[in-house]
Amino acid sequence: MSDLLTFYNAIIIDPLNELETLGSITVDTKDGKILGQNIGLQGRSINCNGMHLAPGIIDIGVKICEPGERHKESFRSASESASIGGVTTLVTRADTKPAIDNPEILEFFKKRALDTSQVRIFPSAAITKKTKGKTMTEIGFLNEGGAIAFSDGLKAISDTKIYYQILKYAADFEALIIGHPQDSSLSKKTSATKSIFSLLKGISSSPDIAEKIGLERDAALAENLSIRYHADQVTTKKGLESLRLSKQRNNNITAGTSIHHFIFNELDIGNYRTFFKLKPPLRSNSDREALIEAIKDGTIDNICSMHTPQDEESKRLPYEEAAFGAVGLETILPASLSLYHNKDLELFKLFQLLSLNPAKILRQSLGTLKKESPADLIIFDLNKPVKVDRFKLKSKSQNTPFDGFNLQGENLLTMVNGNIVFKSHSFNLG
Questions:
Q1: 219-233 confidence digits (pLDDT tens)
Q2: Max intra-chain CA distance, the chain
Q3: CB-based contact 195:142 (threshold 8 Å)
Q4: Secondary structure of the chain: what % helix, strand, coil (to 5)?
Q5: Domains of the chain
Q6: Residues near 171 by Cβ (< 8 Å), separated by ≥ 6?
């Protein structure tokens, strides 16, 4: 039996060459590589019937709750959710319990991922011990052990002197630092963005300038020390203004945003809906509109789900007491496609944000459909209506703000390293 598999009659989205064309792509399933585009019907052939084919999504900042909180999310459940959502590569956060802050825990994490996951998983490691912002982790050993990036998750290191010393050391290893741009003193123990809405609702809040201050500090340190720095989520108009200026001075600075922040705004919190309690918090609608413009003009480099599972007990609490975060692996594709349907982005540009740019940030040969690149791809129905039902999500936690929300675009097939890891019942393999 041939090891070659050809997907034909597909609309191919090529973010590297900025093309969207009808054609075919052939995969060598044995070595997990792309053999080429439009080279004829080689091996087994699958008719895509005009569906779209693109590189798999690379999602930076996913929390898998192993070790410590498997009831919220395991490698197996996160992997299944990712494959359904069109995500072929996960970059995981280190703010687990215990944190991934030493080589032994990192090795455990990698082994569990290898044994139970069907998608690619790149672990990040903590910058500080127990992610408490006090003592530097063994960055050199963790880097050698396979940590792709260093981050304390959704915590900003408040002590600038400590942060400076850590970044100076990390620069020696050309390590990627993923920062959470916030001024800790302004945002501590707050649950919303300071506005008339938060005032009327009586929700503790921090000013939007907290993001700007945090980002400018991090950018200044990154520029001074010549490190690779990625801001996990920039969400405010003021923060975006600072980001633009920082990127003009330093091409080693990149930044992302989450699907939740360019679709929802603070008014969606309504009567204290805790599934909308996020970190950073939802912003004003003017911030949301500014964020879309930043996505369009390239100020924002990537889109992520910022997948943060929380159980029912931690969300079914008064708003101020409820846990932060939302799941997003299964909604990242249709949520992101809203940028296309709303005529904000062409599809190849969208997949630069979802696939190509994250690969560049991570320095991985992923996110493209060029010959000899890993066969990580998805096939999706661009126009199929999707109504999100949180109880049908494969994630162990179902804390999605998209529950009952109408989206457009459904993933039909996911391939990782030449292996089909997900296929919709509606897609015929022939």
A1: 999 999 999 999 999
A2: 67
A3: no
A4: 35, 25, 40
A5: 4-53+374-423 (2.30.40.10), 66-362 (3.20.20.140)
A6: 225, 226, 227
